[in-house]
């Protein structure tokens, strides 16, 4: 019952984030083609049209030896190390994210050009711990990602090199506000 409440609260906060991040009607991303105009493109979705999902894990002593996997639609993206982060550029639409705890996950309807944030937490188990993803509101996640204790994930932990990026994070407004 407690897990159900946590899942419902997580999904509600994620839904609020999604609605709060909707682009305005005047933005070029939301512009629709004029009547009679044809849009025939056979090119893949451009990077600016993709959504960015940031994954991160606090640097903590508890569970520091564990490197749980992070999955998108059952495809392994990377193995998350202690005190690390990475981002993934994904095609907009519904995606399911989880770590190695198959009972816990998040389904997100990604919008083009939007940013989403998922934190990997270590849940204790009988014999060993396992990873669990938690959706985090952008304001909190951007602050936490700016921590000097977090570093980009090591390249040897990446499984999906097409979608995963190990670039340093930089959020302009957050950086200035934290100084």
Share of β-strand residues: 25-35%
Terminal residue distance: 42 Å
- Oligomeric status of the shown chains? single chain
Question: How many E-type strands?
Answer: 10
**What is the N-to-C succession of helices and strands?**
HEEEEEEEEHEEH
How many domain regions? 1
Helical content band: 10-25%
Radius of gyration: 17 Å
Mean pLDDT over all positions:
77
Q: Structural class of the secondary structure composition? A: alpha+beta
Query: Spans with pLDDT under 50 lasting ≥5 residues?
Result: 14-42, 174-179
The 3D shape can be described as: globular
Tally of alpha and pi helices = 3
User: What kind of sheet is the major sheet?
Assistant: 6 strands, mixed
Briefly summarize what is shown.
The protein is of the alpha+beta class and 179 residues long. The chain contains three helices and ten strands, in the order H-E-E-E-E-E-E-E-E-H-E-E-H. The protein has helices spanning 2-20, 138-145, 172-178, and strands at residues 51-56, 69-72, 75-79, 84-90, 93-98, 106-110, 115-123, 130-135, 151-152, 164-165.
């Amino acid at each position: 019952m407690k897990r159900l409440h946590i899942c419902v609260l997580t999904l509600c906060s994620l839904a609020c984030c999604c609605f709060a991040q909707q682009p305005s009607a005047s933005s070029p991303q939301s512009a629709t083609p004029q009547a009679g105009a044809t849009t025939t493109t056979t090119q893949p979705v451009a990077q600016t049209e993709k959504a960015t999902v940031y994954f991160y894990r606090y640097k903590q002593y508890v569970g520091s030896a564990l490197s749980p996997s992070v999955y998108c639609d059952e495809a392994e993206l990377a193995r998350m190390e202690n005190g690390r982060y990475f981002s993934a550029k994904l095609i907009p639409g519904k995606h399911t994210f989880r770590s190695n705890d198959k009972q816990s996950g998040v389904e997100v309807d990604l919008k083009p050009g939007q940013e989403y944030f998922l934190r990997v937490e270590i849940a204790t188990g009988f014999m060993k711990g396992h990873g669990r993803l938690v959706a985090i509101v952008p304001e909190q996640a951007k602050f936490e990602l700016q921590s000097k204790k977090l570093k980009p994930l090591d390249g040897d932990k990446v499984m999906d090199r097409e979608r995963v990026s190990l670039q340093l994070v930089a959020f302009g407004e957050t950086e200035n506000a934290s100084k």
